[in-house]
Amino acid sequence: MDTLRAMRAFVRAVDLGTLSAAAREQALSQPALSKIVAALEKELNVRLLERSTTRVVPTEQGKRFYERATRVLEEYSEAVADARGQTEKPAGFLRINAPVALGQFRLNAMVRDFLDDYPDTSRSN
User: Considering the entire predicted model, what is its pTM?
Assistant: First the structure.
């Protein structure tokens, strides 16, 4: 079983409230997504979702697992982005084209604040 895929399926089902919506989002059939979540439940030996014909609701264990799974998936995404050099922090050269008056009266302070917040960026004079 692809555990990351199963965690994503579970998290999206909880986020969207239905297995059908989560399945559509992941380009799967509803039964296929349901099997993925069921396999995750079997592996964990715990019921994560209460299913009805119209929606899914996480059980108490499901709520706890959802919180941790969400953090794990976020960390994984950040690790992949970092490995690919696609960090979420702006870095590099900042160039802005604007009328002089706008720069003098509005943009200078904003650019200074931006450069203070993101020291890996630079600007030209």
Answer: 0.67
